[in-house]
Amino acid sequence: MLKWKLMVSTLPVVLTLLGLKLFLERVLGFEGLIDFSDVGIILTSGVFLIGFLLAGTMADYKEAEKLPATCPAPSRPSRRSSCWRRRTDLPSTWPSCAVNCWC
Asked: In whole angstroms, what is the distance from residue 34 CA to residue 41 CA?
């Protein structure tokens, strides 16, 4: 019964809306204000844009998974020097651990 809980809980809402639609069409003769052909293009473009947004988000998550491996936090200074400086020759899109590095 647990796997059918969502369907059973939403079924009264669906049947009520279906009954209202049938009442409006059959009794009052109200067909609606717009046709589906007018809305179909807008729905298609919305789904297309959501697909692009999700694809970009998934790429960002994959890059974020790689970041801890490429950006270890140093626990002690390197053998060469004990200074800490900010590299200015790297682009701003690089992670902060590549920009802030040991000399």
From this structure: 13
Full-model pTM: 0.39
- 7-13-18-20 Cα dihedral, nearest 10 degrees: 170
CB atoms within 10 A of CB 102: 14
Instruction: Say if CB 11 and CB 5 are below 8 A apart.
Output: no
Worst-scoring range by mean pLDDT, 16-25, 43-52, 53-62?
53-62
Tokens of 8: 């059973």
Quick one: tokens of 7? 């369907």
Residues paired with residue 28 on neighbouring β-strands, in sequence order? none
